[in-house]
Amino acid sequence: MEAHYLIGDSRRRQEGIPLLEAKFRANLARRLPVERQAAITGLFHDAQRFESMPINEFMAQLAL
């Protein structure tokens, strides 16, 4: 018997993260200018900066 797991299952995390990131970028592109998209996605690649950012500043980045 073969078991298939959904892409969001923890067993498929390595496979799912790039798809989730692509979906996030696509949705940002629908709403925000390129400069804001780059600022937001750049935060996710700098864990220290992201973790030290106050939540109100992060939410302001996402606000339309």
List the quaternary state of the chains: single chain
Question: In which range does the helix fraction lie?
Answer: 55-70%
Q: What's the count of strands?
A: 0
Instruction: Spell out the helices and strands N to C.
Output: HHHH
Proportion of beta-strand residues: under 5%
Total separate domains: 1
State mean pLDDT (0 to 100 scale).
92
Shape: elongated
| Termini Cα gap | 49 Å
Count up the helices.
4
- The unreliable regions are none
* Cα gyration radius (Å): 15 Å
- What does the largest sheet look like? none
Would you tell me the structural class of the helices and strands? mainly alpha
Outline of this structure?
This protein has 64 residues and is mainly α. It has helices at 13-31, 34-44, 47-52, 55-62. It is elongated, with a radius of gyration of 15 Å.
Task: Describe the secondary structure blueprint for this structure.
Elements: H1 13-31, H2 34-44, H3 47-52, H4 55-62
How would you characterize this protein structure?
The protein is mainly α. The chain has one domain (10-62). It has helices at residues 13-31, 34-44, 47-52, 55-62.
